[in-house]
Structure formats: structure tokens, C-alpha cells
Inverse folding.
């Protein structure tokens, strides 16, 4: 039986789009690690064999992934197929969230038919705009496309049901859509298209009452911005013997609910 | 609804949604027009029938001309911005425009995205 509080994360980063999505999900991972046992299959480790091995050995209740997708499949490193229609039975009993194009169209329903407890994903392309390649959460046009994604993950990690997390995410989409509707930035109509598209195509299938962790209050700690992380000796922070170095963020820190 | 009421609603929409004021949203006299242009037509008594008909059908029929005009304007204003997707290739506005002109699969997906925005505009206008 899948284990509560255990998660597998699949994060390929081999092209501009997956690098951006992987960077954005790094924040979610930082939060997840505070409360859950997380395995991070990032970069070249985002393969089908690694995913199946991790699921079989750790039996996670939550499987989170970003990667290129189509109506019938979800892919990892170099577009290697990780899950596809008729070949996703290892997800039985689990809660799955795939930040990917179109997997909510056929793959998600098939996962539910094969016994997945809940599936969250997108029926059409998951899209965003950016002024420059990099961390979308640090980009004025990209931020609104990933905050709703993070909100959904944070709520699940806080022990909320899939339905509650989904609704919190929809609220965040609507907040960003309202924000950009009032903007006079010439790129605003494009950003609006991406936000409206992602909101309207986000689906929750299966058990709306599914949870992945025991209920716990949200932790309003700074979530590291990966692109701006630097190495700082622990002694500089704690005044102790330098037994390790920790990643710290000297700029760009944000409380995770600071935007809206 | 009278033309005066339509003018009032369209004015309120533009005031509350400046981002969408200059987005091509209907075709009048054979050319794409924006809410701001449609409002000016109603206020000056030009093309009233076509504008009223266009408002009533807003977002119902996908229109390649509108999305093409949108990306043509965006490519001129902000050629540097890029569109990313987890299933789509990264695109500049000009590359998006080329897909739309080619009426290919990516162009069709961009048209669908645009249609969703028009449906949102229709909803925000409160049924004109």
C-alpha cells in the first residue's frame, strides 16, 4: 500500500522548457522536504527505469512530475517515455500530479482506470511566456504560470485533500488572471492567454478527498530561489564549527504566499 | 439591449481590463478590430450593425484572422518575448505567427488558446 508522506519527483531538464519547469519545481521540493520523504529524479536521472525502481522500492503515495507530454504519454530526460496509456499500472493507489502538456486528456483518465487514486494535470498544452530564459518564478511574465502549480503542491503537502489543493490552485490562477487583465504591459494579452489556457485545461480526476500527507499547518519559511543560490559556510550563519556548507539565498527570497 | 447600453458595458470592460482593450476580437468591414476600436465605431455611429453582431458572437467561431493579427502586432511590439510549453517548441511571436499562417498543428493550438481568451472576454463583458 502506498506510503503516506513519501513522494517521488521526476524533473527532466534537457531543454529550455524543462529547465525552466524543473527550476520552478525546485521550490516545491524545498517545501516538500520539510514534511516528506522525497526522492528527486532530476536531470538525466528522470528515466522510466529509475522511476519504476524508485516507486517499487519506496512505494510513494505522491508522484510529481514535470516534462514534455502528449495526450497519451508523459516523458522524462530527452523525451524518454515514462508513463503512457496502457502502461501505467505502477501508479495504482497513488496521487499523481503531472505538469505537462495534454497528459490530462487520455493518460490521466487511463491512470484512474488502472487504479491511481487521483490524477491532476492538463488536457491541453501547459504554456507560459518569459522575457528571458531562466527561472520562470523570477520572470515577470512566467511567475503567474507556476505559482498556481506550487500552490497546489504546497496544499497537498500541508495535508489538504486533492480537491482543496485543486481549488486553491484555481484561486491562484484567477488572481493572476485578474492581475494581468488590469495591466497595460504590451505582453499582458499573451500572458493572459497562457494563464486562461492553463486554468481552463487543469483537471482533477479520481478521488477528490485523496491526501498525500498528514494535515499540518503551512510553514511560512523562505523558499530558496535556485537560480540565485550561493554557497555560504554554515559557520557564518550559526557561529559554529564549519561542519558543512549550506545553500543560502541572499537575494530574491520570498515568503511563499507573498504575491497574493 | 440598446446601443447606449452596449457602449456603457464596452466602456466599463475597457476601463476594468486595459490589457484587453487593443486585442483583435472581431472582424468588422473585413478587418480585425479591438474593443477600443469597436467602442469608437459605436460612439460615432459607424458599422453599428456589424459591431453588434460581432459582440453577440464573440469567441464562438475560431477566427484565424484575429489570432494572426494579434501575433503580427506582438511581433512588432515585443519580438524578444518567448512562449514556452511542455509539449510545444519555444517560440518567438514571429515564429508563432509563422505557425498560424501555415495553419499547422501548433498554429491550431495557438488558435485554441486565443479562442479561450475571447471566451474570457465575452464572460467579462457580461453577455453583450
Amino acid at each position: 500500500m502506498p506510503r503516506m508522506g513519501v513522494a517521488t519527483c521526476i524533473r527532466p531538464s534537457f531543454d529550455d522548457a524543462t529547465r525552466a519547469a524543473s527550476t520552478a519545481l525546485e521550490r516545491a521540493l524545498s517545501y516538500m522536504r520539510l514534511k516528506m520523504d522525497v526522492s528527486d529524479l532530476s536531470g538525466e536521472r528522470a528515466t522510466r527505469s529509475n522511476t519504476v525502481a524508485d516507486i517499487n522500492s519506496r512505494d510513494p503515495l505522491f508522484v510529481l512530475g514535470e516534462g514534455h507530454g502528449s495526450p497519451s504519454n508523459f516523458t522524462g530526460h530527452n523525451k524518454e517515455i515514462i508513463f503512457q496509456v496502457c502502461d501505467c499500472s505502477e501508479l495504482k493507489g497513488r496521487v499523481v500530479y503531472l505538469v505537462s502538456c495534454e497528459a490530462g486528456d487520455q493518460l490521466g483518465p487511463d491512470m484512474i482506470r488502472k487504479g491511481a487514486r487521483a490524477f491532476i494535470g492538463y488536457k491541453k498544452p501547459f504554456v507560459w511566456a518569459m522575457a528571458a530564459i531562466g527561472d520562470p518564478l523570477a520572470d515577470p511574465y512566467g511567475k503567474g504560470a507556476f505559482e498556481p502549480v506550487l500552490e497546489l503542491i504546497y496544499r497537498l503537502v500541508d495535508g489538504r485533500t486533492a480537491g482543496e489543493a485543486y481549488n486553491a490552485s484555481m484561486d491562484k490562477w484567477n488572481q493572476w488572471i485578474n492581475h494581468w487583465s488590469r495591466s497595460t504591459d504590451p505582453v499582458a494579452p499573451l500572458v493572459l492567454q497562457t494563464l486562461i489556457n492553463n486554468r481552463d485545461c487543469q483537471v482533477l480526476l479520481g478521488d477528490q478527498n485523496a491526501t498525500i500527507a498528514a494535515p499540518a499547518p503551512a510553514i511560512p519559511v523562505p523558499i530558496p530561489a535556485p537560480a540565485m543560490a550561493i554557497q555560504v559556510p554554515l559557520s557564518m550563519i550559526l557561529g559554529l564549527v564549519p561542519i558543512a556548507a549550506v545553500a543560502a539565498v541572499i537575494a530574491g527570497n520570498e515568503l511563499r504566499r507573498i504575491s497574493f | 439591449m440598446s446601443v447606449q447600453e452596449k457602449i456603457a458595458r464596452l466602456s466599463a470592460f475597457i476601463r476594468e481590463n486595459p490589457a484587453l482593450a487593443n486585442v483583435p476580437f472581431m472582424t468588422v468591414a473585413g478587418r480585425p478590430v479591438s474593443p477600443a476600436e469597436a467602442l469608437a465605431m459605436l460612439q460615432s455611429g459607424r458599422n453599428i450593425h456589424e459591431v453588434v453582431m460581432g459582440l453577440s458572437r464573440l469567441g464562438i467561431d475560431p477566427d484565424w484572422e484575429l489570432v494572426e493579427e494579434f501575433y503580427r502586432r506582438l511581433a512588432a511590439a515585443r519580438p524578444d518575448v518567448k512562449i514556452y510549453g511542455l509539449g510545444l517548441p519555444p517560440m518567438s511571436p514571429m515564429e508563432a505567427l509563422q505557425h498560424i499562417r501555415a495553419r499547422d498543428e501548433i498554429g491550431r493550438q495557438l488558435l485554441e488558446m486565443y479562442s479561450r481568451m475571447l471566451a474570457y472576454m465575452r464572460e467579462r463583458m457580461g453577455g453583450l
User: Anything to note?
Assistant: The radius of gyration of chain A is 18 Å. Residues 97 and 120 of chain A are 5 Å apart (CA to CA). Chain A has one domain: 3-220. Residues 3-220 of chain A form a domain with the Rossmann fold fold (CATH 3.40.50.1460).
